[in-house]
Queue: 4 jobs
Job 1
Amino acid sequence: MKFMRLGTRPDTFYTGEATRTMISDLPSDLTIRINNVTYHLHQFPLVQKCGLLQQLCSERGDTQSVTLELHDIPGGTDGFELCAKFCYGIKIDLSAHNFVPAICAAKFMQMTETIGKGNFVSKLEVFFNSCILEGWKDSVVALQTTERFPEWSENLGIIRSCIDCVVDKILTSPSKVRWSFTYTRQGYEKKKHHKSAPKDWWTEDIANLNMDLFRCVVNTVRSTNMLPPQLIGEALHVYACRWLPDVRRHSETSTASETNQEEESEKGKKQLEMIVSLIPDDRGSVSFGFLLRLLNLGNLLSASQVIRSQIIKKCSLQLEEATLDDLMFADHQVYDIELVEVVLEGYITQWRKSYSRDGNSLNLITKVGKLMDSYLHIVSTDPNMSVQKFVSLAKALPDFARPEHENLYKAIDIYLNEHPQMSKEEKKHLCSILDCQKLSADARAHAVKNERLPLRTVVQVLFFEHVKHGGKATKSHENHQSVIKTHGGELTETTVDRLNRLELSEQSSKEKVVRRTRGPSSTIQSLDPESENKSKGKKVRETGSDKIREIMEEEEEEEEETKQELAKVRIQRSKSEHGRRKGK
């Protein structure tokens, strides 16, 4: 960065707590107070170059000592000290860091050419035009310092000049960039073999600006239509990483005070709204993962419904491009299943409006279906994941978006394995989303032996196996073996044994109910039907237990459902046997 040195005398300003004194053989005859700081100076060098001090001192008459209050001076004490040192001829170094307070204070003090030739304002203007506006980082830093003095900087034209300079350099071809810039992306090293700067070389430096200045720069760049939307999107992404709170950290308990939390939340909300308003309408200008993080943060910050709806719409339009890492917020490894479901529902709504059910459109929504099933694989391992949330997301996909239930079955199996304390009703509810007809032969073979599945689901799988087996048996005359092939899978003797065990459940269920109602006993005696009924009735009357009645009713209801399923299987087996005999 460039700087300009003025003056030759050594610095003789003495600082003692809230007092600044110019060391000299002459006594101080000018006292200036600025906020909590008091300056003991001399009238002669300052009045000679400051029009404001000439006016104020003349109003006081020919007094030996003058005291002035300049609390409203722009640039504060920093700017005033630079002006005072210039008047004394003390050596000062001007740069983009201190230019703005210096020019604001000099203008306020009326240090112009009309007061004295070669005055401070003219020298500052030369430095601004010939040095600051010629450099990239100088322009950005100067623009950044205007945040402290927005009104004066705007009136003096500093903000507009800096923004025009910054935008002009952003629009420069990367091959012509010869100035230094900040670029910390992984994998990039500024070495001589780079023929040109990266296309997004400017994004990190302008990310240091505050909201209003950043918005002005980006809007000015967009208005030129000279940069692709993806570059604008990258600038927004860098700015969001620089200023918006981290999703993971924001969800943790903060040690900050409640007032600070509210201020930070309000600031984050405004920054989020600003970023969303600047996202180009072009699809793909920002990534899906970035949009989903914005949406998640919008929920955490309680952003307005309008802003969240805008983000949901943008997410829905790009869900086809999403990856599993995007849904898991990349390296954060956190997720929000309700958030994903909202985006999925928005996508399906958009899909129904914009696509016809041709091959290409179905391929797109099928791709989304596979992504959702992979997502269910991950979230199913969470011990706190409820059945309702799992089922709700799985059901959000229309049937035609999931032509196969292979991955869905795997996700369900993982969930059952990770949640062993599930009730029967929860298991039934979970498995109700499974379509056994869309399972592969391998998945059906696994399901038949899966002890975690509810009985009803296993029966449905076996029933479908026999339906397929029966249809094949009537067309074939070669099914005399213990292994029956069906569409690439096998119905083995193990499967048949499982069916036989299910058929025996009718007999065992009554004994099971009797055992549960009798309670512990060292010997269970066989009873004839009449004595058994009397004994059971007597037992119920003696205990008067509602719990026992509930157990019996539950077992009878479940047994009735099993009987119905088994009846269907028997019918199909009967038809299959009839088909074989007819074939022989």
Note: The beta strands are 3-6, 13-16, 19-22, 30-34, 37-41, 66-69, 92-95, 484-486, 489-491.
Job 2
Amino acid sequence: RQSRRSLPYKHCGRFRSTVASKQRKEVEGGKEEQQLVECTVVKAVQADLISQTKNNTDAQTRKIAIDFDNTHEAYKSKDNIELLRSLLVFKLCTFDFLVDKNKELMDLSKKVFGKRLFERLMKMTFYGQFVAGEDHNSIKPLIHKNQAFGVGSVLDYSVEEDLTQEEAEKKEMDSCVSEAEKESPGVDHREKKYKAHRQFGDRRGGVVSARTYFYADEAKCDAQMETFLNCIKASGGASVDGFSAVKMTALGRPQFLLQFSEVLVKWRRFFNLLAAQQGKSGMDALEQKLELEQLKESLTKLGVGNKDDIENWFTGEKLGSSGTIDLLDWNSLINDRTKISNLLVIPNVENGQLEPLLRKFTVEEEKQMKRMLQRVDVLAKHAVDNGVRLMVDAEQTYFQPAISRLTLEMQRIFNREKPIIFNTYQCYLKEAYDNVSVDVELSRREGWYFGAKLVRGAYMYQERSRAEEIGYEDPINPDYEATNRMYHKCLEFVLEEIDHNRKANVMVASHNEDTVKFTLGKMNEMGLSPTEKKVYFGQLLGMCDQISFPLGQAGFPVYKYVPYGPVNEVIPYLSRRALENRGFMKGSQRERSLLWKELKRRLLNGQILYKPVY
């Protein structure tokens, strides 16, 4: 990377402009003919010769169609007891009373049956369905069995504190409000979206799937980092090309994520103001190409620096692509000599000055911010050493700009030779496509491997109610159809990037069969072979086996998110699984009907004692 010049202020950074060229690097040479073995679940369909002008070659490919109705293939890894358990659990998830009161009912069961009998009951039902085991050793048989049937694992230690709402709110307020704000509330003109609000302090409310961490102290963060390290080691030891999931809020005080997110968003807004002055508002981020001379003129008029200073900021540099300040680099960020508070400055359009987000940061706050970044660095290095990919989970929109930016900085360092760090993009967000396209463009320019996991999102109800009550724009797409369109738009963009430049990688994390079929159709059109391992698929353990296993047996890289942890400590996770499955199971009877179909098939064929062979 080229050296960066510093702004003539106490922070190190510079203005970034968005994209110049949308041209992609061409892939040299033709694509090899892809031979795919036809089996009962894979239908190989001969395709016409396609003229691939970018390669100046003709490639003959074989299209793949997966039969998601083939229950024999979908459930061949399950014995009959497992199929019956799935049917029971999914049926229970359709009863509103049981789902709404699931936490109370589990607590009551524990008291009535005692700890040992309760744990046994849970392992026969919900725990056995959705959780792999209690520790690294007990999950290995399930991981190896899934692997034998073509399905990999994303290990996810799913233990959470069982806090009351009041305890959660207190922890959140203590950890998200700085000393300066406590001393002089309202003085620093913080935006309300990026401030902590007690009524939304319990971040577990209105959330499906995602684990939630609350900050206690630095020792707790160190302990959570050790848990993630153990998870990475277990993933490396249990499978080849495994993934491990981490959450930024587990690794430090969330105050920094709130503040850094606000800084990034304000710089992006400032960039949009400059774009509007050139008549380029309302465009996609990649289309907002600022004229350099006009940009220099605008900055000079705003008084953000004199002409010579502004000239120096851009000299010898390619224009950036994010419209935000450019951090120094990862090594500098985690270096103890760099004061992170110097980076937390924002442009004041009224007086043309760069101002600190907060009037002051305490020495301890500086240390806490630094330690969070250092913990992330330790995890990334261990992932490289263990041959594991690191999946950074998405979180709430008031944390996410910082999480995404820190993940991107890690990708710049650790994704030079292959994709190690994967960022997560929530496609229920209105800005999802801009986020994906801008990051892909940056990876293309700088030559590192782009890694993305695309999800619809886990915080919709919470995000909507928080935006409405506190008074800022709802960040979520208006309806489910709009989210589907956004998902497919983002996915198609990354698939096209893979087609043109084999450095992009994507995990299609979806339980939606139509989305999976859409992906397979696009891969067929582009001649992308599953053996290239550029497109992955992901589903949660215990759900949508009729999608995961046929894909895996057809040679596609497919992964289950594999939660594990002691029974009593994963109760909060199981509680949310019940809530999520209520909507999922009420909306579709498909999985239950396929399970019944396979059970009937086995009974008619005399396979009452069926055992998977692997």
Note: The chain has a mean pLDDT of 80.
Job 3
Amino acid sequence: MASAGPPPPERNLSLPGPSRPKPKKTLRSLSYEVKYKIIQELEKRTRQVDLARQHGVNESTIRTIKKDAAKIKEHMKITKSTGTSMIKYFHNQVLLKTEKLLVSYLVRQARRNMAVDTRSVKEYARELYAAVSRKMGITEPKPFNASSGWLQRFTMRNKITNINIGGEEASADRVAAREFPPFLPEIMEEGQYTDDQVFNMDESGLFWKKLPSKTFVERITVLFTTNASGTCKLKLSVIHTARKPHAYKSMDMTKLNVHWLTAHNAWTFSTLSLSWFDDCFVPDVKKFCEQQNVPFKILLLLDNAPGYSPLLLDCHPNVKVVFLPPNTTSILQPMDQELICNVKAAFSTKKFKPLNDYTNTREELRNLSDTTTDSKSEDDEDQQLAEQQVLLKQFWRIFNIKKAVDFLVEAWDQLSVATVRHAWRHVLQGIPAVRQSQSVTGEVQTVAVAVDLAREAAQSVTAASFSETTNDDILEVIRDPDVTTAEMVDDDDVSEEAGGASSQEEHRLAHSNVRGAIECIEKVKLLLSDDPDTNRYEIFTTQLLQTMEPYFKVYHDNINTSHQQSITEFFARNPPQPAQASDSDRGRDSEDDFEGFVREALTSVDDSDGDSPEGQ
């Protein structure tokens, strides 16, 4: 029997030397801002391998970024337009677009002094998310429930601190509305004001080309002002986006039948409250007092909209400004009671009459129609309806802002004294008789009658669908309603189409304006630095700086862009020359020459004007 022999040696599978743990692979995620910069470098033909080495990622990551360049650019465009801090990892483009539109909606509500509650914001956000999904052609978007956690993060991310989002249903404050009328007689008695000297102003949007059940075409904001006696209806003030529209090209804008004010966005009056007060209200009221031999001593009631400047409280020694309690506009404010609706309804009536005349003109129809027989076939009737639609479009092309303003002024002038006095009845409860003007006889123009007249005028228009106009359709046109989600999406599309490359160049925010705003902030901090309540001062400055953060970023980006352009321009004018000497004795001189060249380039950048960027 053969011997078994020695057993085989054990196989050592370990590598020689001390054992070392296997290094973990580090995953690096790039923000959208970094990805956008990489795309810019790729467009400059920078090599992908160099970019991968610079950012510490695989070359395949750079290729993926290049493939998704369009999506990344769209994300940056939307994020930049919201004015919020950069969102690092946000892949739901529908939600990003929704949040942008929701910010615009909440800002509009705040400017209109409309309270919003948590429930309504969540519901509006869900409707907006669905509308955006449909607009983007996404049939199955990612689920979005508008949870309380999302709403909290949304408000923090967008720094929404001045918008009232409460837990209860937003509604008019009826308690404050009951307490204010007894308070007003005390003010009038103390200041010896008569109802000739008590005024109220309110703003309202007007879609001056809007038809029943149709999307609006263009909007203006109109400021309506009357006194309590109804003896003074001040000249209307109109806020438009253009300083001088084409319809007024041959006219002096200071001699119109309205005060013409200009704002980048015709939705809001907030930036113009002081200029309206100084240039429109005070001169007009002073002239009225002189004509009526009334002392120039005025009490002006305004709603509690956040857009009004607090400086109005002591802007003029002869004008006392009193703000109505918050959320009481629909109950107390005279202009909001019935006057504005009356004027808008009368404006609609005046607008429909020439529309009917134009679409029903036999001469116009004869020029467009080839049918001259007396008997009309079904095809002839269809042709006539088509011709009327053509005439309808032609009418809207010639119906310009000047004609709309003229109709509005006519409607305002026709408002009766009795109607004005009737609208003030809630505010003037308890006013002594000696403070009131004599009773006015005459019929009060009710909103119901004005709406009926507008409906009848609309039904008389021969174009299709006008005959079916209802009172609800008219009310939809004349009211200042909540902006629907569909209108928000459509309005955003219109603004993006109008805000193309050339338009953005024309409407850039000037760098000097941004710098001036920052200087004003520094002055504000300095003026209030002596506040003995240090806690109050610290809270204020912290919130102020947080609010200005988007503009700080704009300022820094402008500076960086300016310096980069200056360096690029310098090298373009003074291209560096290759060194002429190669020996070691001249090597040091070449280094000195290069250092001097760079020093000169940087000096030229520092000497450049900081206000050179045109804007962001």
Note: The first strand starts at residue 116 and ends at 117.
Job 4
Amino acid sequence: MAASSHRIMLGPLVAAIDQGTSSTRFLVFNSKTSELLSHHQVEIKQSFPKEGWVEEDPKEILQSVYECMERTCEKLTQLNIDISNIKAIGVTNQRETTIVWDKETGEPLYNAIVWLDLRTQSTVEHLINKTPGRNKNHLKHKTGLPISTYFSAVKLRWLMDNVDEVREAVVSHRAMFGTVDSWLIWCLTGGKSGGVHCTDVTNASRTMLFNIHTMDWDPELCKYFGIPMEVLPRVRSSSEIYGLMKSGALSGIPISGCLGDQSAALVGQMCFQDGQAKNTYGTGCFLLRNTGSKPVMSDHGLLTTVAYKLGRDKPACYALEGSVAIAGAVVRWLQDNLGIIGSSEELEKLAASVGTSYGCYFVPAFSGLYAPYWEPSARGIICGLTQFTNKSHLAFAALEAVCFQTREIMDAMNQDSGIPLTQLQVDGGMTSNRLLMQLQADILCIPVVKPSMPETTALGAAMAAGAAEGVSVWSLNPEDLSEVTSEKFEPQINTEESEFRYARWKKAVQKSMNWETTEPVCNGNGETSIFSSVPLGFYIMGSMLICAYTIMHICNKTFKSM
């Protein structure tokens, strides 16, 4: 009997490409039950060519998508699931990351500049200095965003100013700009042979070139940054057919959903009502609260962003967002840079072995501080060290740092909305760390609710794709949405202890401020030197020696105890 006759018929399936900062995944869901049937994941290499620079290879990103698709289809076939039942594909992606490519050759003209990248700090300072009153919120009335290194416009401006290939392509009308979603959709729908150059409203709203009221590119904003509008993708809704897959086993299937990763998680968590919120723990940490059909401007350092627009004729919904740059990235730093852990699982074990940071506080401001401070001059610090401190205490402090940062943005959100959250819905890779989830409940003093199916970001993209007009295999009507099972973490410490630890954290944050400056100190030969001041030089040398001695002592003590 032919193998095909044994294939399991599950009804319509919908797939999602989830292209994140550290990995790419392809996942396939049952549109009737939201069940995850199969997936594959590939890690993405990040490069750090200079201090503060973060890049990725656009071709590696694209290849990882093809690999994940191929491997997932193989797994489905092994499960006797017919891949011809995949009716649509959604895309969700790391936002703000900026790519420019040549539309004639299809080749990227430079590496992707990742959202965390800080190379544009001097550009940002120049832009702020020329605004009335040196106001970083000068464009907020149109964009919902402060002028910051975080967003795409300044990254694109840097590429035009510093990369000859980009400048020449812009002049000769060959350049295409896009965030990762635009690059992938263009390539997957044909590339230089008729690929569709588009983005959705959620990704567009993270560029500083998009007017969140008119829901389109803004000529005045483009002029402000000196960006020619012809390089920009067409802005579409988050749920419509953009084009068809042009190659591989899934050729001919429509790509019909597109959401920036945090918006996708909001949809996947089914936060469709005004006031519902979710927090995603990935490379960074992002708390979004649905504010309905009207944009709400924050007075407490949050962003106003487009949450989703689920159809060409559907209204846009907005969200308040608190963005934290470093969450899961601190785990990678402890693993790759310090070498004190071998895996994320080891971090949880280390932290659990002591159950306290013993007064050690870790502010991981590697890329400055995002919400609610928007302070690019901040840098990471570890303080409160004693001779008793060891790597287990540092591991605990790293987990607490993620929770404290979430507390800061939740406090800001409660102040802006006037209605405090009574529980927090969470998702993302770090939510598998049960100690982190309990710490989060303790520090927020409210329950933390984790869905049993953690892939909410990919699920949101799949829901948008399956619900698109012309596909219509996934109903977003509230009565049709699947019941979500979850686990709840209740606070286990008293409020006084939580507030004491939080106050110490806030003190540590202040110590991290105003650390970096773009104004270099020069010696007599015109060369930059930190030792151009003799007292400063002695102070720095002395501090370095003391720090080195302390770290050696901690390591020796730790290894002796092992």
Note: The radius of gyration is 24 Å.
